[in-house]
Each structure stands twice: as structure tokens, then as C-alpha cells.
Amino acid sequence: MNFRTAIRLAQILTLIMIGLIATFGQSESRNVPAEWLTTAESTNYQKTPRYAETIAYSKRLDAASRLIAYKSFGKSSEGRELPLLIAASGGEFDPVLAKKSGKAVILVQAAIHSGE
Q1: What is the rounded CA–CA span in Å between residue 43 and residue 30?
Q2: Which of 10, 72, 76, 92 is most buried per CB count within 10 Å?
Q3: CB burial of residue 64 (10 Å; 0-12, 13-18, 19+)
């Protein structure tokens, strides 16, 4: 696959993901246990989590699933961790393993401002 094809594929996948998130991202699923509802979900989208709540939730995801790894990719100017959640079905939680796996690597950046 050449570079242009890879870029086009990434663009198409991004558009698909945006569509799926817009369609199902705020579903009213009754199948989610209460302890796994996000702050927004549990408050009918009237409240967003604080930094510490987001970090704690992210670390709970890591502890609960072998498919998710919580990492920090540095510190903010305030000295806070910059969190990174990695989801991988084969344990490819670092860049070298991800590249060797041959799987697509997709970055989703979200919740970078309060209220998101």
C-alpha cells in the first residue's frame, strides 16, 4: 500500500468513526452497568468529569481489560499527566509492536477542553 492510499484509507476510516460516534456515541443503552457509566452519562449530560475523575476512570478501564493500556505521554505545563489509552487486541501497546503487527494505528483525540 502506498502512502497516498494509506492516507485516503485513514481519512475514510476517520469519517466512518465520526459517523458511528455521532450515531451511537450517546446511546441510551440499558446494558451498561451503572459503575461503568461516565459522569456525563450518569448525569444525563448535565455534568462533565474533572481531571482526576477522568484519570481514575481511564485507569479502571486499564485494570478491567487486557485490551486496554493506560499510559502517560508526558506532563502538562501544570505538571499533570497527559493520559493516553491504547486499545489493542494483540497487546501491541508500544509503537514498535504496533508497527510490527501490521494493523492500522488510529489516533482519536478527544476531551481536550473542559466540557467535552
Answers
A1: 15
A2: 92
A3: exposed
Q: What three-state secondary structure class fits 58?
A: helix
pLDDT in tens, 75-95: 988 898 888 888 888 888 888
What is the CB neighbour count within 10 angstroms for residue 28?
A: 6
Q: Give me the mean pLDDT over the 3-22 stretch.
A: 72
The residue assigned the cell 484519570 is: 55
Gap between the Cα atoms of 51 and 42, Å rounded: 17
- Distance, CA of 59 to CA of 71 (rounded, Å): 9
CA pair distance 14, 17, nearest whole angstrom: 5
CA atoms within 13 A on the CB side of 109: 3
C-alpha cell at 64: 478491567
Distance from the Cα of residue 7 to its chain's centroid: 21
CA within 13 Å, CB half, 102 = 1
- Cα separation, 110 vs 85, in Å, equals 11
R_g of the chain, CA atoms, integer Å? 16
